[in-house]
Amino acid sequence: MDxxxxxxxxxxxxxTPFENRPHEYTVMRPSQRYTRSLESDGSVSEDYxxxxxxxxxxxxxxxxxxxxxxYLQSCAQQAIPSVSRFLRQxxxxxxxxxxxxxxxxxxxxxxxxxxxxxxxxxxxLQDNSLTHVGAKALVEMLKENGFISQLDIAENRIGAKGLxxxxxxxxxxxxxxxxxxxxxxxxxxxxxxxxxxxxxxxxVLNLKGNELGDEDAVAMGSFMExxxxxxxxxVSWNAIHLRGATAIAKGLKANNTLRTLCLSRxxxxxxxxxxxxxxxxxxxxxxxxxxxNCGFNEIGVEDILQxxxxxxxxxxxxxxxxxxxxxxxxxxxxxxxxxxxxxxxxLHLDDSTLDQECIQELDKLMQERPGFICRCGTIIxxxxxxxxxTKYIRNSDCRPKVSNFCEHSRGNLTTQRVDxxxxxxxxxxxxxxxxxxxxxxLFGILDADGDGLVRFQEFLExxxxxxxxxxxxxxxxxxxxxxxxxxxxxxxxxxxLDVCKSSDVAPSSRFLKQCSSGNVExxxxxxxxxxxxxxxxxxxxxxxxxxxxxxxxxxxDKGIIAVAKMLKKNRYVVKVDLSGNLVDKKALDELADMxxxxxxxxxxxxxxxxxxxxxxxxxxxxxxxxAPLTYLxxxxxxxxxxxxxxxxxxxxxxxxxxxxxVSWNxxxxxxAHGLAEGLKINARLREVNIAWNGLLDDGISAIQExxxxxxxxxxxxxxxxxxxxxxxxxxARFIRTNKSLEVLKTGRNPFQSYGACxxxxxxxxxxxxxxxxxxxxxxxxxxxxxxxxELVLEERPSFTCSWDISIIxxxxxxxxxxxxxxxxxxxxxxxxxxxxxxxxxxxxxxxxGQRLSKEDFVGGMKKxxxxxxxxxxxxxxxxxxxxxxxxxxxQEFVLWTRERHQSSARASQS
Length: 910
What we know:
By secondary structure, the chain is α/β, with parallel strands linked by helices. Helices cover 46% and strands 11% of the residues. It has 35 helices and 30 strands. The strands form five sheets. A twelve-stranded mixed beta sheet has the order 3-4-5-6-7-8-9-10-11-12-13-14. Helix 12 links the parallel strand 10 (288-290) and strand 11 (316-318). Helix 24 (617-624) runs parallel beside helix 25, helix 26 (669-681) packs parallel to helix 27 (696-709) and helix 29 (752-764) runs parallel beside helix 30 (783-795). It is globular and about 90 Å long. The relative contact order is 0.03. Mean pLDDT is 79; it is low at 1-58, 378-415, 466-487 and 808-818. It comes from Acropora cervicornis. GO terms for molecular function: calcium ion binding. InterPro entries: EF-hand-dom_pair (IPR011992), EF_hand_dom (IPR002048), Leu-rich_rpt (IPR001611), LRR-containing (IPR052394), LRR_dom_sf (IPR032675). This is Leucine-rich repeat-containing protein 74A.
């Protein structure tokens, strides 16, 4: 019997009597053939083995399960929700699931479904909280699946173990050609594990945004020398310096398959550029090279040009955002023009200054090579020069924009004339990059008769001149001064000053200073709505600013709406702080609309904005639609239970948000249940702050039930929520089973020392718990608690526990609510379980354990999570530094600590 045949037709033989023949012809599976035949004539053959048939049917059913059935069964076995998008895409050639927060368990189910899938060739799992466990599952699937050719696991922390698994798979798998492991937190030394195999047949490898460093760059150079398949390599943003650039250049000399190489945003400097130039002299196969923002100047440019003079294969060169300015740009353009055999077709000079000599040289290059493309803020193609960031542009280049304005306004003008004000307003609405002075000059050119009005016939005349210019009937340059416009890109500072002047608002000198930097910090400046609007208009097209802080500026709905409208157009700002202002329903609706259009904003702080639960519902709907936010601070508002339930409903579907703060929001038991429902399903959130609400014991029980299901949360703050001993037992229940939580803050709750003991015992009962820090501020710590803590520290030496009050026996110690800094330090050293020599080595890691400076001491103690403020740590260091030279040697460190420890012990005995 053929196991692959799923159907058959039962036809009676000629020898069978007519009355004994079956009356129906039916389509049957192999396991049904003989059964129907036996039923039709009522006889049973002694030679027929029904046991074998039943076994075959079970294997048949298991083998012929669809990918959807396998996926759903695997999800049910692991008790995780299925992803409907994955089920819809299983029958296509592309699985696209970025930012879904699937996690390792979800990847196990996905891998099981794809193991025997023949349709899918591209798999995108970017930013899905994968670890080496999920990477291992994908690898095992790819060993069986020979059809997937493209895999993207960017922004997942797969680690060294994950890379090792991928290497083993690449040795066996010959179908995977495109691998993306961008922004995966890979550190120096990791890539060596991936590049050990000699049989890797990848064509595209994306390693952008890691921290591979020079060691892995050397390994990559060696890999390039022997590899015969790689065609595209991206190692940008990887902290590669001269040593790494030299190794990659050496590999480039020997490689004859690589077509695209991206080295941008690595500090290779002039010497690294020299090595790349030397490689270009030898390599005859590379077609695209990206050395953007690599820290070299005119000297490095000259070295790369030397390589370009001997290279005819390179088609695309990206060299912008380096330190060569207009002179370097002129040398590049002139060299390309002079090299008649040079195959360069596209040149990128992003953020480079082009003066008039550069423009003239570029114009000549365009005439000689009509298909040449140069990018410098805008595209320059063929003979149509339209440079957005140059200082001078010919008058004729402005005519197309004027023509567009004519066509736009022709049907709307009730009269056939326009004055200066309407002219300026119309061109401003069309986003023509001209200042007020430049618009006045252009109006003077159009107003031929000088009567202050431009008629429609004059517009038509300008349009005809524009057409003639496009046909080449006008000269390239007009040397008469009155026909030349001095045009430049309007800076945000100029736009801001213009808006302030027209709005009668005093400009902020601090904003003018910070506008060209990445951070605009205007906290407590009293800008108001008008001042905020002026700033927003200036920032609409600004590419520099990424962080905007407007805390406590007296901003109401109008100002918040202006910020939201700006963020709809600006794609560079990633962090906004609007806390301490008044955000009403209308402003929240506008912010929600912005989040559905903006894809770059990651961090939003709208705490202390007097928001109510009724007004936040529309905002939460935008969160359900996978807004780009990873950090959201809603603390110190009054959203109450209604708002908490809306947020809980939103985070059920959100697969992007990492941090959520809803502290100080009057959330009670009902709201806690709403948040818990969201936490049960959410697999993305890493930190949640619900402190200073009235959750009570019932509310914390709901949170506990959610955390029994949630295995993604890392930090939870439930401090000051009126939790008694009953609620502590609920917290202890999820501590015993949870494997992901790392920091738990339960301070300022009325459960006292008994509850502290319960929590410490629960930690001991979960050996697989990831908990490394327990904060119990304002909780009494007695002798029993100390004993339980010692048991925890025996198993977990790095565990941190903080509290404020200690009781020895039945007598309260001399330790006050805010104990002496020395006592805090000694208690910290004791609870960490470190010997003094170990602590000193940790603090002086960068100085090879010889001397300890004040900055190293403060930084090291903060990294160890010491519960001491920075200024107190500095005071502590000054006390240790007996000779006052700003440096502590090991002997001073040990003697001081021992003396204080002995005096503390004597004081406790007395």
